[in-house]
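COMPLEX REQUEST
Ligand: manganese (II) ion
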Amino acid sequence: MERAGKLLNGTTVLHVNLGKARLYKNGYSRRMAEARVYDLHAHTLYSDGALAPAELVARAAANGVQVLALTDHDVTDGVPEAQVAAQQAGITLVPGVEISVTWGAQTVHVVGLQIDITHAGLQAGLARLREFREWRADEIGRRLAKAGIPGATEGARQRAQKGLVSRTHFAQFLVAGGHAADVRSVFKKFLVQGKPGYVPGQWATLDEAIGWIVAAGGQAVLAHPARYKITATRLKKLLGEFRAAGGVAIEVVSGSHSRDDMFRFAQLARVYDLLASSGSDFHSPQNYHMDLGPMPPLPDGCTPIWQTWPEREAVSE
Ligand code: AMP
Ligand code: MN
Ligand code: MN
Ligand code: MN
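STATUS: Structure written out below.
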């Protein structure tokens, strides 16, 4: 399936046989396709990001992104606006979502890329998760009130504006009220397991989330795998179950990964025969690990998920 080849500049590359993805239009070399700048994980104010879809697309384009995936938590409402903005900016918008999943006692995130956002089954699933979010928001508020902090649910909902309500909005409310110095420390103090405002997730199962994505014609990608606080054994179990359920890729390059994480997950992607994805997980200009824009290249030996995409995604300008 693989053979080594030389590019025009003499660099040796691996050609992985992925069918359609290898057929490039006349005049386009593989090298040009690979030089494109991808950012396949980003948020808007429809979930817990700070920017409107058009603002996100403008920032991505200004920073040199050529293919941007919008992946809001449990909602796709920003995709149509982002599509219009991307067309105007001359970049490609990949319709996506980041689905909250409960796996054992753990919350994990599964990104869906190239989804049909009109798919009824996907939308019914996401609607159920948003219902849980609404209940959870009230429950977080009740728990924080007991801990002496009233008004949190209203404060968080106000900050969520037209988007869904997330712990990020509770964190913003708590910081504004002087309960912690910044969003990061507020999570540690109030919003994680064992703390007053923590409510266990009742999100989708791994099978459900991947099933919805696949039914909607998309590809399921395990988001920022280094972020889950699990043992190496559990991580292997997660990767195995993820793949068995139909997952096809993991994020290797991510705003929440260190350099070491990147190489570690590049290796795991190979071992588990998973494609590699790359995304900043950008939320806001005030607060980000990695800005929208060029990221470190995927390590050698990874097969980028975009190599499986149709020609027009790989090379259109
Ligand atoms: P939710 O899906 O409502 O439970 O919120 C999860 C979101 O909170 C994540 O997508 C992150 O954007 C944010 N988040 C989670 N943990 C932290 C943390 N320790 N520091 C800052 N933001 C966090
Ligand atoms: Mn988030
Ligand atoms: Mn996430
Ligand atoms: Mn994210």
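REMARKS: Residues 43, 48, 73, 168, 283 surround manganese (II) ion (ligand 2) (CB under 6 Å). The chain is about 40% helix and 15% strand.
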